[in-house]
Amino acid sequence: DGGVRHVLIDANGFWEHGRMIYSRWFIRDISRRVELEREILSVAEQERQRLGQDLHDDLCQQLTGIEFLSQTLAGQLASTSGREVSRAREIARMIRQAITHTRELAHGLSPTELEADGLTGALKQLTERTKTMFRIACRFRCLKPVEFKDPGLGIHLYRIAQEAVTNAVKHGKATRVEISLTPRQQMVVLAVRDNGSGLSRKSFDNARGMGLRVMQYRAGVISGTLEFQRNSTGGTTVICSVSNALMNQKSA
What we know:
By secondary structure, the chain is an alpha+beta fold.
């Protein structure tokens, strides 16, 4: 009917004296499974964004109100005891830190920059949050904005970059990370390069349990490829490449 089917193929051959006598193929239609996996990923993304919005719109507002009350209390106590004033101001300061951290979490869960400024703007904000949260050097490089026909594609690339940065800091103990987005002849290439401990077998296994498979699956959903390279000077580079045909014409 002109539709696209996803199949899983297992093949093996029977060899005799260096010649293949026959081969045996098992082909299973997994189209429905692929559709369900994509639906699950979509629902998970929607829930992540809902949680981020709730943190920003609800919890942050409540914390802001508590901070205001603490500052008001400090002002009222100013004429009575300096010790109580100091404590009230300390409470207000701690609440302000909690508000900042909550907003960072909210932006990580629901990157509003994707809607406002596209993938390029969102990756810039990811770079700034990485420097603030992890206290490391982080740089974003993109010669010109990249826009895609399908906004969902930008979300997948953003999540891949986000996971790669987290793995670089937490597993690779990196102190410097560079994110780049580069349009090429037939592809758009997202790369996350770090100066961490490198992709040892142990760190590879840890990363597999902490999001590597999700990154690979996201790359597959957008018909892209995901590569992991060990840098000659140490550290790891994660590279995701997708077709240039998915871009808007003005960005190509």
